Hints:
By secondary structure, this protein is an alpha+beta fold. It has 3 helices and 14 strands. It folds into 2 domains: about 1-40; about 45-240, outer membrane lipoprotein receptor (LolB), chain A.
Amino acid sequence: MDSGLLHACERIDWRKVITMKIILAAFAGLLACCVSTAHAQFAGKLTYRLVNPTSTLTMVYYQNGNNARVDAQSVSNSDTTKVVNVQDTLLFDIAGRKMTHLQYKTGMAYITMNTAALAQQAMASTQSTVTVQTIGPETVNGYPCTHYVVEGKTGNYVSRREVWVTTALGTPGIQVAGGYLYWTPDFEQEIKLVAAGGAGVVVRSSVKAPGLSSVMDLVGVDTRAPNGRVFAVPAWYTVVDRSQMTVPAH
């Protein structure tokens, strides 16, 4: 082959290689960006509301990294200035699977295992099963969600909860699943839901049963990372560590 023609071919091939590398690099960067966005950890504040016949429950979830916090209170529907119930503030060490109860009436801060871990110990001898059914994609409160049905059976008791989960806001370490209901990573329902693809923010939760019907909605989102002071035990609390205590099985 003529040397000039060979050199020309080499130049053309090299340009193609460079062009292809640029295209692949751009595509890889776009793909990485999409994956990162889809699986980013949630940081910020989520506000939920559940309207009962006589009162309205508001729950506020905060997270930054491994730390989470939940505050909750109910007010009267007839007089919204009247607080009818206040939940003790809960601080969570997500990876450590511990929570701290800030008992505002006593000034005590009790560190314990997560409720799920304590329940598992207490119900160790009881047969229970949890199943998750994927219904499909739906738009709820303006968010693209996937609709799931979570069923649990313990003995003769059967629970059924529908949840709509979005990944548009990232993945929280704990899912607010209903009124005063917080699914930590060791909850069986949480484990099964995540395995089914439901690792995200719960936008709506619904329970319908004889004599019981409730719907919880996500009503506020703030994606600014909370200050570390939000997750600290105030200095005026007395801390008692009970995280090593166990519950006798029944």
